[in-house]
From TrEMBL:
Pathway the protein takes part in: Amino-acid biosynthesis; L-histidine biosynthesis; L-histidine from 5-phospho-alpha-D-ribose 1-diphosphate: step 5/9
Gene encoding the protein: hisH
Entries under CDD domains matching the protein: GATase1_IGP_Synthase
Cellular component, GO, one term: cytoplasm
Keyword Hydrolase among UniProt keywords: yes
Compartment list: Cytoplasm
Organism of origin: Alteraurantiacibacter aestuarii
Protein name as annotated: Imidazole glycerol phosphate synthase subunit HisH
Annotated ranges, domain Glutamine amidotransferase: 7-203
One Pfam family cited in the UniProt record for this chain: GATase
One GO BP: L-histidine biosynthetic process
EC number of the protein: 4.3.2.10, 3.5.1.2
HAMAP family: HisH
Recorded GO MF terms: glutaminase activity; imidazoleglycerol-phosphate synthase activity; lyase activity
Amino acid sequence: MSEAIALIDYGAGNLHSVHNALKAAGAGHIAVTADPDIVRGARRIVLPGVGAFSACRNGLWSIPGMVEALEERVIRGGVPFLGICVGMQLLATRGLEHGETPGLGWIPGDVKRIERTDPRIKVPHMGWNDVALTAHKGAADLIEEGEAYFLHSYHFVPDDGHHVAAMTDHGGGIVAAVARDNLLGVQFHPEKSQAYGLALLARFLEWDPQ
């Protein structure tokens, strides 16, 4: 299992579509797993997420030893990590959906509801939208200009703007991607973003942040 890509199964992700997209992007063995020991041996880790921040957080924390295994492998081990949608939002310090819920805290910031400043703007932010780069370094190098598919009502607001890798516009700026060291998080869904998303996943599969 040491060569596996660990796709974390905590009851809150679009696992089938993400698995198929990773395979289409060139992945070899993918372990869809809720086993912390497999995570500790993985060479890449993908954390998907669909739904409410608190539900996803509780699902991840309910697996004994999983958060500790992720911290050991990602933060201390430095393996490439990709968070998708709520999987990206869980990198934050806290989510403010249905009260305050602590996140992993790997990239400091809050997850807040998208504010409707224009009645023509609909929430959730759903559909295709532009991805505009804001940084070119480290994990941010994996992001390219293009169009991706979004579906979310809450958005990640990092404390440090240097962690923002890309933005999109939906009645105002919304963070499309965050990056730090060996961490990349995308608010959009690569598995639903056709050629653009598969190209991103292919770059992630080849990425060596060391």
